[in-house]
Amino acid sequence: MNAERLLYLADGLETVPSKRFKMHSWFVGKFCGKPKEPTHHSCKSSACAMGWGTTLPKFKKLGLKNIEGMPRIKNDRDCQLSGFQAAEYIFEISALESRYLFEATFANQDRYRETPKQVAKRIRKFVKLRDLYIGRLYELDKAEYKW
């Protein structure tokens, strides 16, 4: 887990207005600023945590971009990863952890109305207590999909 990057995202989310945050969609609205890349202040678009992550300078420098409404990044093998896979790669977390942090309906929870501050709090708590979360996440995931 790359705690530094997760906490950087949490800090960035603290600056996002709630009315421009939609946990259920990577990006909603028209593209503005540079072609197909939203900028923080140029329009009234909204995005989820990872969608807003594409606007943060350190993540841009790493190659995280919003391409056609989806967060994308190229990995070390020059393969393009998108959505949850992009989160897994950039934060060095598992697929399950990525879903827990960034999926609006993880384990049948309704996170559609979450604010950016609530998501930032979840990220910070996860970084602090990750080892305690792992077993519980697998239980929730197993129950959701009835494995």
Structural write-up:
- With 147 residues, the protein is mainly alpha-helical.
- Helices cover 46% and strands 10% of the residues.
- It has 6 helices and 5 strands.
- It has a 3-stranded antiparallel beta sheet. Strands 1-2 form a two-stranded antiparallel sheet.
- The longest helix is centred in the last third of the chain and has 30 residues, at 116-145.
- The protein is globular and about 35 Å long.
- Residues 33-44 have low confidence and may be disordered.
Task: Detail the topology: elements first, then pairings.
Layout: H1 3-13, E1 27-28, E2 46-47, H2 49-53, H3 57-62, E3 65-67, E4 70-74, E5 80-82, H4 84-91, H5 95-102, H6 116-145
Antiparallel strand pairs: 1-2, 3-4, 4-5
Helix content range: 40-55%
The tally of strands reads 5
Order of H and E elements: HEEHHEEEHHH
Rg calculated over all Cα atoms: 15 Å
> Which percent range describes the beta-strand content?
5-15%
What coarse outline follows from CA principal-axis ratios? Answer: globular
Low-confidence stretches: 33-44
Which structural class do you get from the secondary structure elements?
Answer: mainly alpha
Can I get a quick summary?
With 147 residues, this protein is mainly α. The chain contains 6 helices and 5 strands, in the order H-E-E-H-H-E-E-E-H-H-H.
Keywords, please?
6 helices, two-stranded antiparallel ribbon, 3-stranded antiparallel sheet, 5 strands, mainly alpha
